[in-house]
Write a structure and sequence with these properties.
79% helix
């Protein structure tokens, strides 16, 4: 799941969507949609794999399905933090400036004065430290991933079946 999301980010970077403030909105939309699709796919596949490992005579209820999905999301979010730090500090160190420029352009388009935009941008820059961005990404990934796991667990739970004994 984390690798799939990282590949999407890298593809958008190599296509130039993370270097231009005007294209950043499109990149964020693509990342959101593909990230959701990747998340759902891997939570479903991983939960099904965990369910298959549990004998049919044992209950794989909502709690176990949710636990399996949550663990997938937790691991993917932790791996996402590592990738995000590498992306912002090594692969694309100018990404933060592109994000800030995109936000400033939106504020100016909404009629804010350049002084107010500069004031907001200065405050936002302090919050855009790679560690803060990674922590926020972790929390967002964990939150939205848990929502996915909550829904998928309802569909992937399985009651225990009675094993028929042949005589």
């Amino acid at each position: 799941m984390a690798i799939g999301s990282a590949l999407v980010v890298c593809a958008l970077y190599f296509l130039g969507y993370h270097e231009d403030a005007a294209k950043l909105g499109t990149a964020q939309l693509v990342q959101s949609i593909t990230g959701l699709a990747i998340g759902i796919t891997y939570v479903v596949l991983g939960t099904k794999e965990r369910r298959a490992a549990v004998p049919p005579t044992e209950d794989f209820g909502y709690g176990r399905a949710l636990g399996a999905g949550f663990m997938i999301v937790l691991f993917a979010s932790l791996m996402g933090v590592a990738f995000n730090l590498a992306y912002i500090t090594v692969i694309n160190p100018g990404y933060t400036e592109v994000v800030l420029q995109s936000q400033a352009d939106k504020m100016e388009a909404n009629g804010l004065s350049s002084d107010k935009v500069e004031q907001i941008t200065t405050m936002t820059r302090k919050m855009m430290h790679p560690a803060v961005q990674s922590a926020m990404g972790f929390l967002a990934g964990l939150f939205f991933g848990t929502l996915v796991a909550l829904v998928t667990a309802a569909f992937l739970k399985r009651p225990a079946t009675d094993e028929l004994v042949a005589t």
